[in-house]
Amino acid sequence: MIEPVIVVVTLLGLIGIGAPIFLALGASGLLGLWMARGSIAFFFAPTSFFGQLNSFELIALPLFILMGNLLGATPVGKNLFNAAALWLHWLRGGLAIATVGASAIFGAVSGVSVAGVAAVGSIAVPQMLERGYSRGLAAGSVASSGALAMLIPPSVPFIIYGAVSGVSVGALFIGGIVPGLALAAALALYIYIRVLLNPDQAPLETGPAPSMGEKVRSLAGIWHALLLVVIVLGAIYTGIATPSEAAAFGAAGAFLIAALVFRTLTWRTLGAIFASSVKVSSTILLIIGCAKIFGDYLNLVRVPEIVAEGLTATSLPSWAILVVLMLALVLLGMLVDAVSLIVVTTPILLPLIQTLGYDPLWFGIILVMNLEIAVVTPPVGLNLYALRGVCPMLSVEEIVRSIVPFVAVQFVMLMIFVLFPGLSLWLPSLL
């Protein structure tokens, strides 16, 4: 069985020299197919690539990305933070907790964590620093809560996992609600306890308390986007529309909000939004298609079955195997981007998960919770660099140090949902 070793070494070598991840996956998978089946591999590989992308549900991917980019061109992120800050004015650490709430809601609007960090962080961090919040609390609250966009629907990682695994994207969206809200609550609780024990980290607001009228008026700048998200997700959950159909409606609605309500669209802005959406979507789709070539090779030589048999033969209890897998995924997430981690590990690990008797839907939720840790841990943690980009007053070293306790909270929540699968499955079972 020297061929799989050659294929894996080729994959790691190409990644190591800086080759695009789609090229590394496609080339190593094609090499493996050629070693296993000869020249027929050159017909088999394109078939795998096209078959993976020939999916109606994948249409939702570029449409939700377009929806998020259109709303990202509006002041929705700023308005969300301002509204949350007004409503939590009375609470010590209220600005940091407001950041968590604003990021969670913006995650439902955009579905992309980096966009949430940029939109909320550019407003939240300067305001927190101006009011005497510690730099660590300001940076950590933004970077960690931005990752909620990966779990709270509509989530791009859920769409990718659904395409690779065959699990219903609508069911994944429903399953992400409880873990997403629980993680947001855990981050907010940690902030509250932290400032309670160390009041110097977040001084109480000294200005006059906002009136109820000011609080209500602050909602005027966000209700359009929130209503759009409720309609889009409601259409999916009630079965009125598929995720792809709802995504099309969401993109059209986001265009109308940006063009008619906020009037932030110009021809140049619109062109930049379309260009960015096409670039991001095509990159992800290329990775998904090439990963199918690599995954088909692994299935051809029975790598998933061998891994499953090897781990189950250890006589370890299933929960112990799961903990080992979660630790391995966290470590991999520090080195590989989120999309690549989904498309590479799912074909290998999903058969093992099913052998252990767990639901593929649950595994998709747990995998995305892992990715939330991945995007805030160096060296690949994109949220860290996105925050540095919009907040140049913070150094990368400061941001990395600030995220450590928040990552610990995320990992504790991950373990809770790993050890108690019913917590994430009860809502999908009801709907």
TrEMBL record:
It is a multi-pass membrane protein. It is found in: Cell inner membrane. It holds the Pfam family DctM. It comes from the Bacteria. Keywords: Cell inner membrane, Cell membrane, Membrane, Transmembrane, Transmembrane helix, Transport. Part of the tripartite ATP-independent periplasmic (TRAP) transport system. This is TRAP transporter large permease protein. It comes from Thioclava arctica. The lineage of its organism: Bacteria, Pseudomonadati, Pseudomonadota, Alphaproteobacteria, Rhodobacterales.
